[in-house]
Amino acid sequence: MKIGCVGLGQMGRAIAGNLVRAGHEVRVWNRTAPRAEPLGAAGATVVASPSEAADADVVLTMLADDAAVEGVVFGERGILGCRAMHVSMSTIGIAFADRLDAAHAERGQAFLSAPVFGRPAAAEAAQLFVLCAGAEEARRRAGPLFTAISQRVFELGEKPSAANLVKLCGNFMIMAATEAMAEAMTLAEKGGIARAALLEVLTGTLFGAPLYKTYGQLLVDDRFRPAGFAAPLGLKDMKLAAAAADAARVPMPLLSLVRDRLVSAIATEGEEIDWAGIALPVRRAAGL
Amino acid sequence: MKIGCVGLGQMGRAIAGNLVRAGHEVRVWNRTAPRAEPLGAAGATVVASPSEAADADVVLTMLADDAAVEGVVFGERGILGCRAMHVSMSTIGIAFADRLDAAHAERGQAFLSAPVFGRPAAAEAAQLFVLCAGAEEARRRAGPLFTAISQRVFELGEKPSAANLVKLCGNFMIMAATEAMAEAMTLAEKGGIARAALLEVLTGTLFGAPLYKTYGQLLVDDRFRPAGFAAPLGLKDMKLAAAAADAARVPMPLLSLVRDRLVSAIATEGEEIDWAGIALPVRRAAGL
Amino acid sequence: MKIGCVGLGQMGRAIAGNLVRAGHEVRVWNRTAPRAEPLGAAGATVVASPSEAADADVVLTMLADDAAVEGVVFGERGILGCRAMHVSMSTIGIAFADRLDAAHAERGQAFLSAPVFGRPAAAEAAQLFVLCAGAEEARRRAGPLFTAISQRVFELGEKPSAANLVKLCGNFMIMAATEAMAEAMTLAEKGGIARAALLEVLTGTLFGAPLYKTYGQLLVDDRFRPAGFAAPLGLKDMKLAAAAADAARVPMPLLSLVRDRLVSAIATEGEEIDWAGIALPVRRAAGL
Amino acid sequence: MKIGCVGLGQMGRAIAGNLVRAGHEVRVWNRTAPRAEPLGAAGATVVASPSEAADADVVLTMLADDAAVEGVVFGERGILGCRAMHVSMSTIGIAFADRLDAAHAERGQAFLSAPVFGRPAAAEAAQLFVLCAGAEEARRRAGPLFTAISQRVFELGEKPSAANLVKLCGNFMIMAATEAMAEAMTLAEKGGIARAALLEVLTGTLFGAPLYKTYGQLLVDDRFRPAGFAAPLGLKDMKLAAAAADAARVPMPLLSLVRDRLVSAIATEGEEIDWAGIALPVRRAAGL
Could you tell me the pLDDT band of residue C16, with boundaries at 50, 70 and 90? Predict the structure, then answer.
């Protein structure tokens, strides 16, 4: 398949690399051009604009936030109106996803939301999880692409923004579990029990999931720098979730709690802290 | 081994039955005597007081709360001062566990805290998880007993109440995960996504742990009656955790949140609701 | 003075009327024109655009939200670049106030933020409180205008958005006090004490402030319809406060709490409920 | 009247002094005897036990907590069963107040709950507020006593513990208002507005109550040592309120929030901090 890749951060680069390796004909574009070079060396075609990348069967976008996606879609020489089906993989807001959907529909351009779960290492290993929503025919067509980059695809119906909502729910769940572990570990520690001992019990009994093992270990080791996923990005996602909750009239006090914690982590630890670093204000509030 | 079993509720009965089946010589006592009869028929000796049950190598107690344990230990014809090592398996408070430890030490009687994770079905199947703390020699001696009833034992050091603290942390984590799922499912549902679809994504990606599968399914099905573990018992445990947190000077806002939710679930749904029923006030606050 | 008034809702109308009565030469404009007629009959000049209203010494804007202000300032035939000093009295966000300030400065047009405290009845009675910030000379010039509509002016320095921030803080404080009263009254009521009896103690001892008397009585009487200030407007203000808090990196869990309550009040009671109606979900969560 | 005074801390001493000055025949007792001496010098009779103090028309108790009251009532040479009507002025729990009521009723001894609002300075100046509940005849009899020590008495019906519940509600309201001010001041300060400027606006508009003036000034000045009312005592009261709320099945998330804040203030600032010192963890969580 002929695939354009727009956005070559840690995630986008890894995805594009796997598409090249899978034998697809890949066109890459990044706002800061040098990032595209290694992919060019690996066999991709480096192009000069999002619209050139979208001169393809499918164009993927994987960018930091709504504003960045807005730029490459609606901006000059943008994706909108090009012949490629647009597969949006960024973590964006619900209202913006709905706007993208409507704008593409108006132009007769196919559009899918396909955000992913997985850290950069999982992207490298083609082991992402894809959450996919949009017209069935479009999902079918995007199948080979997802096969090349992921371990599993979850189909979430016809409405693209549904996939974005599930993604935001997932990120909220990660923060909620982290807050829970941070509070429990702080209580345990002040009660004379090592954090690692508590974590061993949790993951050895009811909480034997990847999330608890990975994030729990970060908390045991106080390992929050360099950030795998920086707190301000986590805060952005919690705000997107809160905007969705406000719009749907759903009070979510636990979401509010983790959002306030992220604000506190950034205020006290700086913008470079990992989002799991919400454990630090938890500990500090207890005098540790 | 000669083992006394005090407290024959759903959990205590299942444990005693497994000890009989494992070939131990079991003496059983329950406040309401008829509950002991089936075990008598199965080969246990029904006795007339906790102290008679404690005329053994080990005496287990598995009761509803601090007050019940206080009665069988410090009350007339109680366990205190008997020859058996006392293994306390109930979910009790930290201060009370420390008091039990001191009282036994004063009498030269061995004492272990060994609360468990597992619903009654796991107890029947001898698949409990045991959290064990106390003197090493005592833990060693209790080994065969735990082998007969559990799939795994976690050793948590010399101080008995440490095991109780870990147990309370675990129950808090369960409520925290339930609140998180309830909020996320409510948001998803109002956004047009089936609860089951969200749960499938969560358990298929980062949250593939028994807790999310079991409790998540309860939430998907709105199945909160009859209670597997009633909300007032859950509230009791959250209060014990809060008392421990207050004493250790650890602010735990997520604990406070789930505690308030349990109060609300009981206020609006009645005392018979399962503790996972905290999902109902979450949904109701969103107008569902 | 020659004064333009843009926005003739309940508040704007009352303010314009007082300016006419005080002998000023008043030009009025409203998006839906008929609202301007009674003021025309009372001696004001009805004009056809914001820019005509701003052909004056001062132009006041009193509108519902950021978007409405954006329209009359930056839109076609807008206020920006006119000769009048612009006095912005709406409750708007901090970032938007800063943007207004910069845009006016660029055009060499004087600009003040002057949001107010007071319900429509206070506006009619020329008993508003004005929070005023901006260049000192501009504040001095606006003095006679404020004299005609308010009981007191608070000067808050040179930076216009400071007045907006104080206004948002005040609205947050109102919601916080309302939540506190709602929780306390619910506890009292379930404990057999009439809400009115509790309120009498509070206002007769430490809480003898207008806020507690007025809002407390609303809660005693369950009088939330018709809305004096509708919950969705209150929610809008809490979101503006939260945006300011996020930007300044200030975690505000009590703000989060009242925000979630407003969402719940709207979800369960409808969009028409008064913002003091947050008392209803408080009561309902307790089973009342 | 012949009046016994049991408990001569800051509050009890001031009350007893005013009773002496008002011409009553006063008998005083304190656990640590030397505290009684100045009152002896002023005309009171120093006695050797609570029961001797209760050889009077009325006996007042003003002590730190439930346990202290339990000691002087139910302990050896205690008040229970003496001829004096017992007027309990301490801030105690609802369940314990009910137990006191029942125990006195059983002995045919009159009993009133009469907790007060007011700092020690107000007690010295005979300017307390009294919350009084119990049998009407008993309240009538205690009238002259209250006249000598207070500026106003609130009658709260026949059930003594109602007065205690209102007192706990009041202390909760104080903490809620303090948290609200602390959050708003932190936001204002990070936004460039002096705390004093914000307080001036609040108390000059809707929040012109003694509570906001007094506590607001403490927050403006960061004046939390020495404590007027120490945080651990405030935490005790919030726990009593939470116990009442749990028993009445009332979720109170704002109560939970201030309770967690008090825990944090004690954990980070030490046991000697004033309860208004909850402002410190608020500021610290924002990186100030």
Answer: very high
Amino acid identity of residue B93, one-letter, is: G
Strand partners, A63: none
Q: Is B167 a catalytic residue?
A: yes
Residues B100, B61 contacting (CB under 8 angstroms): no
Can you give the C-alpha Rg of chain A in angstroms?
20
Yes or no, beta carbons of A245 and C259 under 8 Å apart = no
- The amino acid present at C254, given as its one-letter code, is L
Average of pLDDT values for D96-116? 98
Q: Which residues on neighbouring strands pair with residue C61, listed in sequence order?
A: C6, C88
Say which of A253, A264, A287 has its CB closest to residue D285.
A264
Q: How many CB pairs under 8 A join A and C?
A: 43
Whole-model pTM? 0.96
CATH tag for B2-158 (out of 3.30.565.10, 3.90.1570.10, 3.40.50.2300, 3.40.50.720): 3.40.50.720
Nearest-angstrom CA–CA distance, D113 and D135:
10
- Alpha-carbon distance of C103 to C116, in angstroms, equals 23
What amino acid is encoded at C73 in this protein? Answer: V
Q: Which of A281, A286, A287 has the CB atom closest to D285's CB atom?
A: A281
Tokens of C154: 């608070």
pLDDT, chain B, mean: 97
Domain boundaries, chain D: 2-158, 165-285
Helices (H), chain C: 10-21, 37-41, 50-53, 66-74, 94-107, 120-124, 136-147, 160-190, 195-204, 210-221, 231-248, 253-269, 279-285
**CA of B127: how far to CAs of B116, B148, B220, in Å?**
10, 9, 26
Alpha carbon D275 to its chain centroid, in Å, reads: 13
Q: Mean pLDDT of all residues in chain A? A: 97
Q: Residue range C231-250: average pLDDT?
A: 97
Find the radius of gyration of the CA atoms of chain D. Answer: 20
The ipTM, to two decimals, is 0.96
Tell me the pLDDT tens digit for each residue of D140-168. 999 999 999 999 999 999 999 999 999 99
Strand boundaries in chain D, DSSP class E? 2-6, 25-29, 45-46, 58-61, 85-88, 111-113, 116-117, 128-134, 150-155
Specify whether the CB–CB gap between A51 and A75 falls below 8 A: no
- Residues of A contacting chain D (CB within 8 angstroms): 253, 263-264, 267-268, 281, 284-287
Asked if C241 and D205 come within 8 Å (Cβ–Cβ), the reply is no
- C-alpha span between C160 and D259 (Å, rounded): 37
User: CA-to-CA distance for A7 and A10, rounded, in angstroms?
Assistant: 9
Q: Does D109 have pLDDT greater than 90?
A: yes
Transcribe B127-158 into DSSP letters. -EEEEEEE-HHHHHHHHHHHHTTEEEEEE--S
Q: What topology is assigned to D165-285 in CATH?
A: N-(1-d-carboxylethyl)-l-norvaline Dehydrogenase; domain 2 (1.10.1040)
* C281:B285 CB<8 A: yes
C57 secondary structure, DSSP code = S
Nearest to D254 among C131, C212, C257 (CB): C257
Hey, which residues does C4 pair with through a beta bridge?
C27, C59
Sign of CA dihedral D141, D144, D148, D150: positive
pLDDT tens digits, one per residue of D202-219: 999 999 999 999 999 999
A285: nearest CA partner in chain D: D264
Q: How far is it, in rounded angstroms, from Cα B212 to Cα D108?
A: 58
Hey, which residues does A130 pair with through a beta bridge?
A: A116, A153
For residues A257 and B253, the answer to whether their CB atoms sit within 8 Å is: yes
Averaged confidence pLDDT in chain D: 97
Tokens of C277: 């109606």
d(CA B239, CA B168): 10
Place of tokens 């990032």: A35
